[in-house]
């Protein structure tokens, strides 16, 4: 009986909850589709036009291409444990989808869209990426390297990795904005209380 009451209580809460479906459908979904599609299209182009290990200048002094198959996580982590990587990526993507469904803060939704698109695109790409140089499956196509003299970065990434980093950057920005708003609200409240006490 208690269990049944709890289920009914949750049903009522879910019906009353503001999921922001319109915002998710008309703003978030198009961004999500564009980001996933652009990542997958660039991976397909690289796989069809380049040989494994082939390099090319994309924007000299800024970014270059090198076609590789990464069996690990972002920036080559856990490369020898691709089944663990796929399991972790699947769990993370599933959790991000759940967060996306229930999150209703518009600023946080934009950050989450970037992170979810990167995670989902890389997960999809692992299902069809060519074998690596050792004929191992389950990798993801990486092809971008920063070509900036003062940036000593040698890791190779793809657009999905970039989307995740953009999402993290947007999250940091949202934290700063919300902290400033919190301080402003607290200051206004304190000022109002001081004026009332006069």
TrEMBL record:
One Gene Ontology term, aspect cellular component: plasma membrane
Coiled-coil residue spans: none
Enzyme Commission identifier(s): 3.4.23.36
Membrane-topology annotation of the record: Multi-pass membrane protein
Predominant location category: membrane
Active site: 142, 161
Catalytic reactions on record: Release of signal peptides from bacterial membrane prolipoproteins. Hydrolyzes -Xaa-Yaa-Zaa-|-(S,diacylglyceryl)Cys-, in which Xaa is hydrophobic (preferably Leu), and Yaa (Ala or Ser) and Zaa (Gly or Ala) have small, neutral side chains
Gene Ontology molecular functions: aspartic-type endopeptidase activity
Pathway membership, UniProt: Protein modification; lipoprotein biosynthesis (signal peptide cleavage)
Designated name of the protein: Lipoprotein signal peptidase
Species, as recorded: Mycoplasma yeatsii 13926
Taxonomy of the source species: Bacteria, Bacillati, Mycoplasmatota, Mollicutes, Mycoplasmataceae
Annotated gene: lsp
């Amino acid at each position: 009986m208690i269990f049944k009451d709890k289920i009914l209580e949750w049903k009522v809460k879910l019906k009353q909850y503001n999921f922001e479906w319109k915002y998710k459908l008309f703003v978030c979904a198009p961004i999500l589709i564009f980001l996933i599609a652009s990542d997958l299209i660039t991976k397909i182009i690289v796989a069809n036009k380049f040989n494994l290990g082939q390099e090319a200048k994309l924007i000299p002094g800024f970014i270059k291409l090198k076609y590789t198959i990464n069996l690990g996580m972002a920036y080559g982590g856990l490369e020898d444990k691709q089944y663990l990587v796929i399991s972790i990526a699947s769990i993370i993507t599933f959790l991000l989808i759940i967060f996306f469904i229930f999150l209703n803060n518009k600023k946080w939704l934009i950050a989450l869209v970037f992170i979810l698109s990167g995670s989902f695109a890389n997960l999809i790409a692992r299902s069809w990426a060519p074998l690596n140089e050792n004929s191992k499956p389950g990798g993801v196509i990486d092809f971008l390297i920063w070509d900036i003299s003062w940036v000593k970065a040698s890791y190779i990434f793809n657009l999905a990795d970039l989307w995740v980093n953009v999402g993290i950057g947007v999250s940091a920005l949202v934290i700063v904005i919300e902290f400033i708003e919190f301080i402003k609200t607290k200051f206004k409240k304190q000022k109002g209380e001081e004026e009332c006490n006069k």
